[in-house]
């Protein structure tokens, strides 16, 4: 059992070992950690508005075989920023001269887009709308170009158009184009992206999406690099100045103690073709080893169901219902606290007495093929003394399981597309890093990023 200390503040801080192999640089961005109330509101927002990744998985009508299914084209970053809603965003420059743009980091899908000033239906965003008329390098993609059929749901009444619907209240439609992107200290011309002119649902979160999935329009595919990594700053980090790295490039590596698990083969149909699947074989909760059923360990390539995917935009880890129920029961049987009603968006919560200073919770280990991911308490639970709650940051799903970003806090995660493997190791992601001047062919981007918190429509400073 691990001892989970309840701090005087709303959320509990825990220490991690430092990330090795990277030099440091100072950052001056300030932020405030999210309150328990904001976490609850954020989870409710995600469940009821965004709908999480699992809402994208309803059956789609088959598309013509000559159309590459929707991904999210990638844009990149000067800064990886964390929102009070559990999203991570990156700041990029688009155009010549570069216009600052904030994009939602997405490792599940492979399409990059941003809202443009020419939008007829627009949402509020943290940075000014990208204005194509002010860029010398903006160019619409012709219908006859080979890139046009690769766009999400392409059509060509005159220009090459795309159409992405994430949920009933969350979509983007617009024009396919190419543009120069400023990524870190470097610029890269002729990257394909979507210039959104009819958009809904991202109010205050970001200007668009940066996709790093497995499709042909992802940033990694367009830049022809084999590796990228992220290190998500903790939800609980209460320091005044933090930085968190996001890197793309062939020479990224972790320490010798890092563990690796292979990616699982994808289904061929969108959106599944863009995901990074992993083989989760079991979950240990304290003294209980819970084997995962075939609906979690295996992908059904006929029905496009099953398996587990890693997703940076989803806060919770979701397990297929039978697997989740078994894991849930293991927590209930070992945590010596009374159950209590869970807030909207949560499933399992325990009651904390007003004066509690600490509580024992089970050790948790995710057993992947060839690698065990040990999770500290702060990557499993949210504890709030004011509301008297200890809540599990996991839930149930149907058809597919998801490894969410809450479980990846203070974890340096490397996606090796050449070796088709995911590597990881504990890290202190709030430490500062220095951008390295490696040759372009080796590392395209090593971003020093400042973590800040916002809540939906309001930036916290």
UniProtKB/TrEMBL annotation:
Residues covered by the Peptidase A1 domain: 88-425
Annotated CDD domains: pepsin_A_like_plant (cd05476)
GO biological process, one term: proteolysis
InterPro entries in alphabetical order: Pepsin-like_plant, PEPTIDASE_A1, Peptidase_aspartic_dom_sf, Plant_Aspart_Prot_A1, TAXi_C, TAXi_N
Keyword Zinc: no
Domain of life of the organism encoding this protein: Eukaryota
Transmembrane intervals: 437-459
GO cellular component term, pick one: extracellular region
Signal sequence bounds: 1-17
GO molecular function: aspartic-type endopeptidase activity
Keyword annotations of the record: Aspartyl protease, Glycoprotein, Hydrolase, Membrane, Protease, Signal, Transmembrane, Transmembrane helix
Family: Belongs to the peptidase A1 family.
Name listed for the protein in its UniProt record: Aspartic proteinase nepenthesin-1
Organism: Ananas comosus
